[in-house]
């Protein structure tokens, strides 16, 4: 009797804005600058643990806050103890995940972020184009 194979494909729906940040500051200093210059109140949370396909576990620094407009903002370090949060973007230092924000709020936050003098670069990413986008589902 032939074996029946059923394949499951998932279409992930990312309902957040993602900003990639290039910054040489340490995580606590960058979050201090964000708090001071942008009116945020980022607080450190337990590190996020990610396992790759080889089952290597990596811990990544994680900060979070509720923004002035009610949006939820998470900052996660790309470089962890044993790997990267998003391995295909090794040149990125941090990711900002902005949830529960409309397009105008996210653009205003992004514009304010880009105006910071200590920031080397920031750009918006489309999460669905990343191979390891499922890592961002930890914030849901």
Query: Strand order across the biggest sheet?
Result: 2-3-4-5-1-6
Q: Compute the number of strand runs.
A: 6
Q: Cα-atom Rg, whole angstroms?
A: 17 Å
Q: Main sheet? A: 6 strands, antiparallel
Give the strand content. 25-35%
Number of helices: 2
As for the number of domains, it is 1
Global morphology: globular
The secondary structure category is alpha+beta
The overall pLDDT, averaged over residues, is 86
The N- to C-terminal Cα distance equals 43 Å
Highlighted features:
140 residues, alpha+beta, 6-stranded antiparallel β-sheet, 2 helices, 31% strand
Question: What does the model show?
Answer:
- There is one protein chain.
- With 140 residues, this protein is of the alpha+beta class.
- It has two helices and six strands; from the N terminus they run E-H-E-E-E-E-H-E.
- It has a six-stranded antiparallel beta sheet with strand order 2-3-4-5-1-6, with helices on one face.
- Strand 2 and strand 3 form a beta hairpin.
- The protein is globular.
- The N and C termini lie far apart (43 Å).
- The model has no long low-confidence stretch (mean pLDDT 86).
How are the secondary structure elements laid out?
Elements: E1 16-22, H1 27-38, E2 43-51, E3 57-66, E4 72-77, E5 94-99, H2 103-114, E6 121-125
Antiparallel strand pairs: 1-5, 1-6, 2-3, 3-4, 4-5
How do you describe this structure in short?
The protein has helices at 27-38, 103-114; strands at 16-22, 43-51, 57-66, 72-77, 94-99, 121-125. With 140 residues, the protein is α+β, with helices and mostly antiparallel strands.
